[in-house]
């Protein structure tokens, strides 16, 4: 064995397990025997040596593995055959530690969010591959698609990153990817030669730790039956990977000075200090970290890290969506029927690139199929699908307990809103009981019961089945009409204005809540909430929202005069899309003639969102920063799909909107958008029909001669109004 630390630990453990009388006999035999042709250890040096001294003498006289061989021989000669066998076994175990030392509770099964007690799904039977791309740290430049096994692949300079940050939006698959990495590593299918130990740290659970801990304590918690192996683990940190899942859920500030950080694995500190020490590499600096987070927490995380690699989970490709449907339904006929319906609905199919939304859509469609309902009832917004999912659980077949469910629903909304404001995602039993959520009919399918270790005791805490559901219920809290029964119950104050003002000042943690707020004001959502769930949405909220939007025009959305009256943030459009109200959208966008979207990579859903606004906007601009220089793009098409997966060209959705006779778009710039001759057919069709488009810039694209020819032929068409083609 080459690792001296491993040998030292093995010998120390073997000697520590000897009775005092056996230890004396061991030293006596050792001083009278010639092993390995190196003579015997002098009796004088052994006579007063304790167990640690004896271990050091063994390592001094006999190099490397020979010290272990000598110890086994002495054990055998003094008739300690059990000790000899155990030491021999421990040595072999150390050589194959990846097989024998594994964190407990490996995630072999997962629970569907609406699963009944005892119902589980094997992770490997449900897991579907996700698109992951490397991104150069904190920039918009992306390289090729990668897989889980290349996250730690050396870069072009041969440098292997010690820290990989896996970024992804809500519900995009960060946690299940983390668990899949754990499971595949444990099966010897992933990082077999790279990591001997992989440990999963749940950030949600870290928030609960009140007493001081050490890195060693955190490892021991996952390996409770391998206490003798902890020194082996700590002795080779370059073979150790920590998966830290859900950084955005941590409530700590991480503003600690370097003097407060720890450098020793057994040093006990508050959990925020331990995590900061891992992030800043003051403890176990040779170890590796894989950290998952939502984009909103990237800036906070970036202050703790150096030389990290960023990778982004982009969701399911088209082929992967189909695979997920078949894995979910496990009924070939239902899977084909559901997927065919979704595939023919461009909006629903695009929404399915987000795994959590794909799961909700599959769940809703499965319930509709089993009840013989028309699949066309499915919504075309994310909020609408959450409402349908909610209604399917509130009113299962044969249920007539709507009043009870309404009370439980309001309790869930209050719990969610309180948690959003307090940045809290785990709730105590007392809070659950206070809101009446401990009753049998209290919609338990929206809450998970979690048993956490707290000091020497265990504690039962509750969380929403997914963070996005907490954000959905928090939004619902603000739009439901007042209920006298909920007054004076310690619930947060219903003040939409305060919510929107805080969202305007710092959008990070309120972003999805406000997007759901818009979506719940959708006419279909209002109708479904009242008819299917029995809850009315306050009509006043929509006017409050419009007033806030009009106020924001003069503050947050102000930009230099050259870009007068410009909307700058794509999130505004995602929100407006959810409301699906043409008049509301028209009034919100009325003063604006140009859109500027900065530093964004457009997802397929973003393209659909933007395509719905071309009727009201005259110019669209995507402003981005490249690695070499500032460049201005006036639209950028998503690179998140492979060309061979696309049924249509890259500009298909854009062109569909431009063909609308009511479209007001006059100027369109498509510079640096990787457009090829394939897209020119769609663009040529636009030039022949659009009565508004007067300027089209196609610079720095690979149009080829055939593409240019198609555009030139379109210019000759009598209906073409284009004045400038660049």
UniProtKB/TrEMBL annotation:
Residues 162-367 form the NACHT domain. GO terms for biological process: inflammatory response; innate immune response. It comes from Terrapene triunguis (Three-toed box turtle). Gene3D superfamilies: Death Domain, Fas (1.10.533.10), P-loop containing nucleotide triphosphate hydrolases (3.40.50.300), Ribonuclease Inhibitor (3.80.10.10). PANTHER family: NACHT, LRR AND PYD DOMAINS-CONTAINING PROTEIN 12 (PTHR45690), NACHT, LRR AND PYD DOMAINS-CONTAINING PROTEIN 3 (PTHR45690:SF19). Keywords: ATP-binding, Cytoplasm, Endoplasmic reticulum, Golgi apparatus, Hydrolase, Inflammasome, Inflammatory response, Nucleotide-binding, Phosphoprotein, Repeat, Secreted, Transcription, Transcription regulation, Ubl conjugation. One of its GO terms (molecular function) is ATP binding. The keyword Endoplasmic reticulum applies. CDD domains: Pyrin_ASC-like (cd08321). This is NACHT domain-containing protein. Its main location: endoplasmic reticulum. GO terms for cellular component: canonical inflammasome complex; endomembrane system; nucleus. Residues 1-93 form the Pyrin domain. It holds the Pfam family WHD_NOD2. It is found in: Endoplasmic reticulum; Golgi apparatus; Inflammasome; Secreted.
